[in-house]
Amino acid sequence: MKKVHNFSAGPAILPAEVLKEASQAVIEFNNSGMSLLEMSHRGKDFINVMEEARALVKELMGLGNDYQVLFLGGGASMQFAMVPSNLLIAGKSAAYVNTGVWASKAIKEAKLVGDVNVIASSEDKKFSYIPKGYTIPADSSYLHITSNNTIYGTQMHSFPDSPIPVVCDMSSDIFSRRVDFSKFGLIYAGAQKNMGAAGATMVIVKESLLGKTGRKMFSMLDYQVHIKGESMFNTPPVFPIYISLLTMKWLKKNGGLTWIEKVNNEKAELFFNELDRNSLFTGTCAKEDRSKMNPTFLLTKPELEESFNKMWKEAGIDGIKGHRDVGGYRASMYNALTLDSVKTLVDVMKEFEKKYADAKVTA
Amino acid sequence: MKKVHNFSAGPAILPAEVLKEASQAVIEFNNSGMSLLEMSHRGKDFINVMEEARALVKELMGLGNDYQVLFLGGGASMQFAMVPSNLLIAGKSAAYVNTGVWASKAIKEAKLVGDVNVIASSEDKKFSYIPKGYTIPADSSYLHITSNNTIYGTQMHSFPDSPIPVVCDMSSDIFSRRVDFSKFGLIYAGAQKNMGAAGATMVIVKESLLGKTGRKMFSMLDYQVHIKGESMFNTPPVFPIYISLLTMKWLKKNGGLTWIEKVNNEKAELFFNELDRNSLFTGTCAKEDRSKMNPTFLLTKPELEESFNKMWKEAGIDGIKGHRDVGGYRASMYNALTLDSVKTLVDVMKEFEKKYADAKVTA
Fold first, then answer.
1. pLDDT in tens, A23-59
2. pLDDT per residue over B207-261, tens digit each?
3. Three-class SS string for B294-339?
4. Which residues make Cβ contacts (< 8 Å) with residue A65, sequence separation at least 6?
5. Which of A53, A62, B28, B93 has the fewest C-beta atoms under 10 angstroms from its C-beta?
6. CB contact under 8 A, B38 and A11
7. Distance CA B25, CA B35 (A)
């Protein structure tokens, strides 16, 4: 199997040992004579998986019993609808911070439920920074923020002190660093970046916030229904949840969030030092808001694009083409990406500068 | 690996060759150097999976371009909400046939959208038969039926001629037999019985039925949004969809619905012949409505339960404990269950009768 440095923005790289164990479970799980895919989700084998996964989320985040953890299908996009359905109280509004495409989608869905107040936005500069210094209206139902923006390469490096419950879409930087998670009322994350494969979405919610809207809603959209069903109101996405469990176990075994934060800081420092030093590259967003998960960057000489593409492809690098809204490049450095892969990219950038910085090359 | 005869009601048995190929894809897919779980869903490898899966559904069912196929997350339970959201026209009602727990849940969700008319029900006899001879109101938006009822072991062996679009929950007998699928306006099915693993739900819809309600709804609940996104409006459940593709390819390779119908008839005949002959067992529902997917049965001498349980367990049989609502046993015989497994169960039943029919045994 050839070596690939997988910088994909998501679904994204997973630890090799997670893949190995998952591959085995597809053939046979727990010496049962059956694949994990063939087992009843009501059998003890999968109930154990679900319970361990739910408990491990709280353990890794240091959260107590006032929080409930759910693993649902439908993707984070479904949470754009579920959050206002469950939390937006009639007669009140919901406050949203708009930091890009995903926040905009969350706002769009919330408007179907009630009054939405976009209290801050970085749309004026193509979402290239994180808005700061805004006032959070104390009479809103909740504040919704997006901690990391994959497309624009921005990330919140601190979180606002809020007089109202904070809801955070952490899809693209969940489990990447230490955070005081108890500051949040609800956190959701599609699993397919830092915590597994596509098909499962994690929701952590402070239970005391629920049941206050009096709104009738579909059972599948109702957090309280899922909590009552112990995250198995209906058949859950069994295999994606198992991948999340394995990924969390890998994280815990290696030292949890303290460890991964250190690793991610090393990777980011190595990459950003080179980005800032190298004359042929430039970042796309405000330095203080740069994402450690999804650095985005451009060539200073766009005519060299083909030459650069050739070089990184030859080095076994994959998935660094930028999103069409921003162009250029995006080197996603999720938890499972090794420092070695970042070194490989940095070496290519250095080599590229050496070869082309002074040359009058056209593509 | 020990041999298990897996009669689970779902998630359920899958073909061994599907599991083998899926297991490999978890390590590396298409010689890419990457796991299928690590790949962008927007890359050509997965787009090919999605397109092949969507096309194969129509090919196996003999449906034309007036139908759209979607693979969504969220489970069939989400369809209980999506169907009325997309099809129930204001001022009209929706007609439902109540054949058990799943139909009842579909009815409950539809009532949140509009007027629901339960035009037939078998609740009077604990859902042990399929209602017939009911009149379908021509002015309703649609008729909703459930083709197979896992809990009660009943199945529709013919479908009503309807003046209005028929919506069918085929979660537990999809792809098990030839049906004139063009009689349906919408068919949905959770994948985890006959077409894969938990986490993906297939929806087939006649596109001309959509866009008529004027109802505002969440993007994730809107079939037209998913159609426009070619079943990738958001990140789809990648791996469960791949399992569905492999399962459909296995079906096609072996002869499609003509072949599997023959196999399923053989299995059902073998089992029901024994059930009707054996003095120690009795079925739980009307003979003409018995499900070929989920035969349900009871001991005529309930005091022999422990002895029977011991015998089938020793024969390597798994998953035949009945649902708590019906009690007794349920031997689910989905597509991937072999005739050999049914023979094993029938042999145990024969042996059990031989040993206990005349004995005055108490457990």
1. 999 999 999 999 999 999 999 999 999 999 999 999 9
2. 999 999 999 999 999 999 999 999 999 999 999 999 999 999 999 999 999 999 9
3. CCEEEECCHHHHHHHHHHHHHCCEECCECCCCCCCEECCCCCCCCH
4. none
5. A62
6. yes
7. 6
**Distance, CA of A95 to CA of A117 (rounded, Å):** 5
pLDDT of res. B363: 46
Instruction: Give A-chain residues touching B3 at CB under 8 angstroms.
Output: 33
CA separation for the pair B123, A75 (Å, rounded): 36
Q: What CATH number matches the domain at A255-356, 3.40.50.1580, 2.40.110.10, 3.90.1150.10, 3.40.30.10?
A: 3.90.1150.10
Q: Do A11 and B40 touch (CB under 8 A)?
A: yes
* pLDDT, average across residues B140-156: 97
Q: Identify residue A228 by its one-letter amino acid code.
A: K
Topology classification of domain B256-356: Aspartate Aminotransferase, domain 1 (3.90.1150)
Q: pLDDT value at position A122?
A: 98
Every domain of chain A and the residues it spans: 16-254, 255-356
Residue of B11, B33, B238 with shortest CB distance to A37: B11
Partner-chain residue, chosen from A14, A76, A240, that has the shortest CB–CB distance to B35: A14
Nearest CA in chain A to B319: A40
- Does domain B16-254 bear CATH number 3.40.640.10? yes
Fold identical between A16-254 and A255-356?
A: no
Residues of chain B contacting residue A9, judged by C-beta atoms under 8 Å apart? 40
Which residue of chain B has the CA closest to A233? B77
Minimum distance, in Å, between the CA of residue A155 and any CA atom of chain B: 21
pLDDT at A363 (0 to 100): 46
Pick from B107, B78, B76: nearest CA to B93:
B107
Min Cα distance A37 → chain B (Å) is 6
Chain B residue numbers with beta carbons less than 8 Å from the beta carbon of A106 are: none
DSSP code string of A208-220: GGSS-S-----GG
Which candidate, A7, A75, A89, places its Cα nearest to that of B71? A75
Question: How open is the CA angle A332-A338-A344, to the nearest 5 degrees?
Answer: 80
